[in-house]
């Protein structure tokens, strides 16, 4: 009986933690994850925190710290400079859809991003890519949208 009660308590705690995570917005979820430090710094430098904390809904294709590390040397440092704020905003909003799109609804095709440009989404053999960046984790639920994790920063052309 004690094992059954302990199991029920642990199960209840697990669901409460997951529910609490879903109450955090996209920014707070990214901060809490620990693998998006560079993305969070870029969002702050681009003055997009307030936007990504708003009601949304948003779907963010979030590059990991490792994804940012793959950028050519000096690129990130340059983008974080105040004089490049507009370009940084363009790049970051190229990772955001103004809708809540769970992985189950992702399909091959062009998708319009918040910056007004399209990305190419490809779904094949159970894998999803966005402009050749691999989606490595899906459906991180937040209070104002969804985060899908990608392994590369996608840069808009032009």
Notes on the structure:
With 158 residues, this protein is of the alpha+beta class. It contains seven helices and seven strands, in the order ααααβαααββββββ. The chain has one domain: Roll (FAS1 domain). The protein has a seven-stranded mixed β-sheet with strand order 2-1-7-6-5-4-3. Strand 6 and strand 7 form a beta hairpin. The N terminus is likely disordered.
If helices are DSSP runs of H or I spanning 4 or more residues, what is the number of helices? 7
SS elements, strand count: 7
Q: What is the rounded Rg?
A: 17 Å
The biggest sheet amounts to: 7 strands, mixed
CATH class: Mainly Beta
Helix content: 25-40%
Secondary-structure arrangement, i.e. CATH architecture: Roll
Tell me the strand percentage band. Answer: 15-25%
Low-confidence stretches: 1-20
Please trace the helix and strand order, writing H or E for each element: HHHHEHHHEEEEEE
Distance between the termini: 65 Å
- The CATH homologous superfamily is named FAS1 domain
Mean pLDDT: 86
